[in-house]
Amino acid sequence: MARVDYTERIPNNVSLAENRRLLRALEEWRPRYLDWWQQMGPDGFQAKDVYLRTAISVDPQGWAHFDWVKMPEYRWGIFLAEPEPGRSIAFGEHKGTPAWQEVPGEYRGTLRRLIVTQGDTEPASVEQQRHLGRTCPSLYDLRNIFQVNVEEGRHLWAMVYLLHAHFGRDGREEAEGLLQRRSGDSDKPRILGAFNEKTPDWLSFFMFCFFTDRDGKYQLASLAESGFDPLSRTCRFMLTEEAHHMFVGEAGIGRVVQKTCELMREHRTDDVRRHGGIDLPTMQKYLNFHCSVSLDLFGSEISTNAANFYTAGLKGRFEETKKTDDHLLKEATYSIAVPDGDAVKMAEEPALLALNERLRDDYIADCQRGVDRWNATIKRHGIDLVLRLPHRGFHRAIGNFAELRVSPDGRIVSQAEWDARKHDWLPTPEDEAYVASLMTPVVEPGKFAGWIAPPTRGINGQPVEFQYVKLTPRE
Ligand code: BYC
Ligand code: FE
Ligand code: FE
Asked: What is the distance between the alpha carbons of residues 138 and 446, in angstroms, rounded to a whole number?
């Protein structure tokens, strides 16, 4: 069962060959997906061989397969984590009853909506990143972004499979819609805010992988708890891919920090721009931006949607089954941050309504661990500066703080103060132009752009100077 059948056009471990109708529907969707990939996927590298990892089975060893692949020939497939025999629903009003193998009629619309929202982010991120190959800081990084892109493409397949297999005609229509919306398009934008922002440069890309893919980790982990077993198993396998995306983000920013610190020490200056580096205050502004738009992705602090998802058994908490409370949350309360005059105070709210905020708290703690590791690098260089996550109310467009102006250190400020200070807090057009000016491609194996340190090791035991993408045919 764990073995993936690669003799099939659509590799899968869901016995697709035995379900002719579903197979046909997915085979019809496939050329439209490939058209979308050609049109909206990585710009300019479709014919190049890339050293990619492909899943050949869903157990951890199945990940060991690396090979040269042209991206349009990547084996996008449908992989679900192994079923847990006798799995039951862990929370909400159906707690203790067997997990559903089919969609319960009463939750059809809600589940479809959750799956479409999740699915929509996957192609959106590929669209946002499609121009970045042309300005890669190294072949190693070029390979990594393409690995992320093909896996986000596969995540779209994962959600489209669920739509086709379990939602009939509506599901097929939604699967088309996922190929029709476009990131940043004013007529048919992607569903969630962060996925309509631009990812214009590699600093933004690494920040996106660190902050926005990490929202993916937390959302997928909550959906992995779902009582709808096919969704749970799909998300559990997606999470194994997500780990690499967050590695790309954390290590990418870590390498920029490293390079900046080296330049600061070498030239005994904070002004590393003169030496082609990205100064730490600019990195802090990019961090503030990407953190705040990613915090919005968790929804409002108080959400009846989230309460309904939970009570229905559709979307759990992070690590729901490891928690030892009643998994119903009818009586429990949870402490959330709320604006109070010009300060922020904590208020107890019904835990059931505060589930988005609770997930956001888990996410912030996870982000902080990465920031601490960057700060350890800064400290090791004897530099007296710390990167900080902005306050959760900073620059928010969703929730309690959306109508307010909040400083990164969590003061509710006047519009006048915001206007005067926002250039200290968010990237300015000049900052963006400076970062853009650094984005000249470096494609010689083993060479890196001057604003980023090399990684400590290569991919799959290969040396750092390996030719991870074959830009010219091998002689
Ligand atoms: N932008 O009760 P509320 C990933 C809407 S990332 C625009 O506050 P709820 C990836 C909301 O839809 C993971 N609209 O929130 C990463 C609702 O609309 P209606 C993606 C927003 O529903 C990198 C209204 O506001 N997965 O995988 O509890 C690369 C009030 O909603 C936003 C998921 O998101 C926003 N930021 O929670 C590639 C999981 N926030 O009903 C991939 C599935 C809220 O009034 N989605 N709204 O029309 C969900 O679980 C929920 O839809 C949300 C929102 C957590 C997003
Ligand atoms: Fe994804
Ligand atoms: Fe991802």
From this structure: 7
Please tell me if the CB atom of residue 212 comes closer than 6 angstroms to any atom of ligand 1: yes
Buried b (16+ CB within 10 A) or exposed e, 349-373: bebbbbbbbbbbbbbeeebeebbee
Digit-coded pLDDT (tens) for 188-210: 999 999 999 999 999 999 999 99
Q: Where are the domains of the chain?
A: 16-470
231, 293, 305: residue to mutate for ligand 1 pocket, most atoms within 8 A of CB: 305
In short, whether 118's Cβ falls inside 6 Å of ligand 1 is yes
Look at domain 16-470 and name its CATH class. Answer: mainly alpha
- Tokens linked to 389: 């996550």
* Gap between the Cα atoms of 294 and 212, Å rounded: 5
Please list all protein residues whose beta carbon sits less than 5 angstroms from ligand 3, which is an ion.
213, 216, 245
C-beta 222 within 6 A of ligand 1: no
Tell me the per-residue pLDDT of 410-446, one tens digit each, with 9 for 90 and over.
999 999 999 999 999 999 999 999 999 999 999 999 9
CA-based torsion, 269, 440, 428, 286: positive or negative: negative
As a whole number of angstroms, the distance between CA 57 and CA 163 comes to 23
Q: What is the mean pLDDT of residues 277-298?
A: 98
Residues in contact with 33: Cβ distance below 8 Å, sequence separation at least 6, in sequence order: 76, 153, 156, 157, 160, 179
Residue type at position 50: V
Say if ligand 1 is within 6 A of residue 221 CB: no
Distance CA 68, CA 57 (A): 18
pTM above the 0.85 mark? yes
Residue 130 neighbours by CB under 8 Å, 6+ apart: 40, 41, 42, 43
Distance CA 406, CA 255 (A): 30
Report the residue count for the chain: 475
Nearest-CA residue for atom 11 of ligand 1:
299
Q: Is 121 in the pocket of ligand 1 (CB under 6 A)?
A: yes
pLDDT digits (tens, 9 = 90+) for 355-387: 999 999 999 999 999 999 999 999 999 999 999
Spatial strand order in the sheet of 66-70: 66-70, 49-53, 469-470
Contact 230, 165 (CB under 8 A): yes
pLDDT tens-digit readout, 301-348: 999 999 999 999 999 999 999 999 999 999 999 999 999 998 999 999
Alpha-carbon separation of residue 422 from 97, 273, 319, 426 (angstroms): 52, 21, 37, 6
Question: Tokens for 352?
Answer: 């059931």
Report the pLDDT value the prediction gives residue 175, as an integer from 0 to 100: 98
* Paired sense of beta strands 333-340 and 66-70, if any: unpaired
